Amino acid sequence: MFTGIIEKTGTVKKLTTTKNLAILDTLAWSGPAGIKKGDSIAINGVCLTVTQIKKNILSFDIMKETLTKTTLGALKLGNKVNLERALKANGRIDGHFVTGHVDHMATLKKKITLENYTELRFSLNKKTAPYFVPKGSVCVDGISLTVGEVKKSYFSVYLIPFTLKVTTLGTIKEGDQVNIETDILGKYILNSVTDKKG
To answer: What pLDDT is recorded for position 89?
Structure first.
């Protein structure tokens, strides 16, 4: 379980592809203090398990399903990724509950940049559209954000300068894809209502 509050960005140092599997090496925390093999870390919103630690490089195994259903399959050397360690039971929840299980990928349709204002409009998936509500929560590439507008073909989010500076959304371009995880609370509520009607 995560919160969608990015702790830092990492850099893809190596990506080894084998049959039905990829091994990702990411330059991350300075030294392994506080991180051990078997820990869960969200990379661009995808929950992965640390398999090796060498100095400040963390290694992860990525299964075929993850490679095809998330943006991790398109990672290249030098790419920046958003990193968040799993939530501690006694920690503060500054974002919202995030599972690290991506629902789908979305495409940035439009980026509007004004003075101290950035709006991102992402394509809306028909299957998950019911989970998007204005002022609700959404996880975009591992980042907990508030949903702005919800239209027939897109939803929007608004970014403060701090988010642009400390996450990968600062360099996103129109046409880029991101990982989307809708609000887990919304899923349970909507499914409960649907079940009662059924």
So the answer is: 81
